[in-house]
Amino acid sequence: MRLIRVIEAARVGGMMRMMAVPPVKRFSHLPSMHAPFSLLSRQITMDAKNIASRLNSSGLLRTQGLLGAKWADAYDGKTIEVSNPATGEVIANVPCMGHKETNDAISSAHDAFDSWSKITAAERSKCLRKWYDLLISHKEELGQLITLEQGKPLKEALGEVSYGAGFIEFFAEEAKRVYGDIIPSTLADRRLFVLKQPVGVVGAITPWNFPLAMITRKVGPALACGCTVVVKPSELTPLTALAAAELALRAGIPPGVVNIVMGNAPEIGEALLASPQVRKITFTGSTAVGKKLMAGAAGTVKKVSLELGGNAPCIVFDDADLDVAVKGALAAKFRNSGQTCVCANRIIVQEGIYDKFANAFAKSVQNLQVGNGFSDGVAQGPLINEAAVQKVESFIQDAITKGAKVILGGKRHTLGMTFYEPTVVSDVKSEMLLSREEAFGPVAPLLRFKTEEEAIRIANDTNAGLAAYVFTNSIQRSWRVSEALEYGLVGINEGIISTEVAPFGGVKQSGLGREGSKYGIDEYLELKYVCLGNMNSN
Ligand code: SIN
User: Fold this and answer.
1) 12 burial type by CB count under 10 A (0-12 exposed, 13-18 middle, 19+ buried)
2) pTM over 0.70
3) Which of 16, 234, 324, 496 has its CA at 20 to 30 Å from residue 289's CA atom?
């Protein structure tokens, strides 16, 4: 049987068209006659075809990079495939760009900087507001695109569009509030000022887990204060980035202000780091890559913002409201199938409530429906790829070997592909991989503690410091514990706390800088001290 490759970027007279090609087999380790998989595959083929044709007619299905005003292929014609993680189907081919294309994108951004940084903040604000309006009016299509290339349930994908667009709206407003300072002078004939000016061209490297929101929370503040950007989205999920860039152009953001390159990640990274014209690197992704970028940025002394891996503790005290704790821990753990840097990675439960919590939590987890993100009621989509599943498997195996017990799940889902059963593991100890590193998957490890001091010690026993969650009904304890936690974000009796209006970022090896909120724009600004002397002359 021939499957249909959903979107083929064949251009005839500049138009995209659909064409049938043989399937690409990416999951050859799985039994080929797996019944649920073939059903799922047929269903998504239908969905994907409809979505593709709708996106195509609205012009949002872009499959080329954006270099200044030009939608461009890789100069050597090489492409990479973008696949639907729920089915393995190839949904598009995009250019595999490298050094040369990145250098041209940097030149376009550099050329555009002069005029973009000089127009008024009010004009930039208007363009951003228009972009926000377009993102919201295309929410359905963007949400579908996110589900198609990333796999998360459509409801979550639509939530990401609102969240992501929120950064553009927020920074459209903040653009008008980049105030400088006047400093009282120590000498009577001088006046001292501080100007805030855009850093220049920004290289923004973004991950696959939030194909839209991780871009907008970098590009929003950058553009608001007059910077121009070269964005490198993940090669796993570039289509949402390209659609957002198309909408940016439609919003009247001038060509060259937003550029998109994708493909050969090491080459693109090297070109961004080597260029003296790129004055800032902003990155969301793994700690290992973040460290390399930080070291690479030293060569040209660029500003760096890094949003890196976490190892979030979720502490449940005996005095917590059980329902609130279960609901909060479930949300914190299973958002995006566990694939966020702020997902609860260790659920640390006080001994008095441990058994009750473990039972109630496992029951809730059991109710999470796994499946294709386009199906109604699905709460857990596939993991992004086979490597992600293997990582989860190895962490669970390590925990079992060291004495932990799987109380729910613990294996690949019968749907096949990269679907994994939502899993709860009890009796997890600090030395296990599940405690030491981010699983980035749908596995919830439960650890036990006796005292508040012990909970804080366990929670802080990591090099990461991004998000932490605390469930307690004591106001005093919530203050004490929040102050003691070495983390950039703390949720008290809440499992999802990200918002464009609050600062997001980590301490220790979880990163540098903050995104979102009034603080987020500072990352894209330089301070300039101006001293006006000889004031007593005429
Ligand atoms: C991330 O996983 O890096 C971002 C999560 C969020 O914005 O809440």
Assistant:
1) exposed
2) yes
3) 496
